Amino acid sequence: MPDWMRSGRREAIVTACLLAGLALTTPAARSADYRIAADHSHADFTVRLLWLHTINGRFTQIAGQLRTDPRGLATVDARIAVNSVVTDSARFRRWMLAPEFFDATHYRTIHFVSAPVALSVLSSGGTLDGQLSMRGVTRPIRFELMPSACGAIAAGGCVIEAHGTLARGEFGMNSHRTVLSDQVQLGLRITFNPAAG
Description:
By secondary structure, this protein is an alpha+beta fold. The chain has three helices and twelve strands.
């Protein structure tokens, strides 16, 4: 092989190695992460008791993140600490944590992962579909997002509010059906801040 061909081949190999190195060290097309601000986030639930009264509860510890990608899509990943539930009554709280309901001893978290959604929907409002895991059971769930100020999320924080409904029986909470509604109203208020980088 002539020297000039060997030289050209060496340059091509070096160029290929440099490009491969850049591909390995460059972040994946500007994806970005935002963490849930636990001290400014909560999840509420309401269930009817005896068809006249309601039981209200709030989970005060939510952790997780929102990840965006270069296509303008966002995915919410949130974990709720079951033991963080608070209610108006200590008796109701014990009831909620018992095996017949959240079974907090065996299932310590409720996990929600959304389907990818256009980042613009977080600002304008709309549908947020995803999977909810509770008591070892995973079911599809749909939330309705309220309009928010998330259009400028790249410049700072973002607060989203969402509302949905689930059937507790689908997650194995089948007890007390004669006095407690199967339908549970859910509300999320989650604040996202840019993750430390």
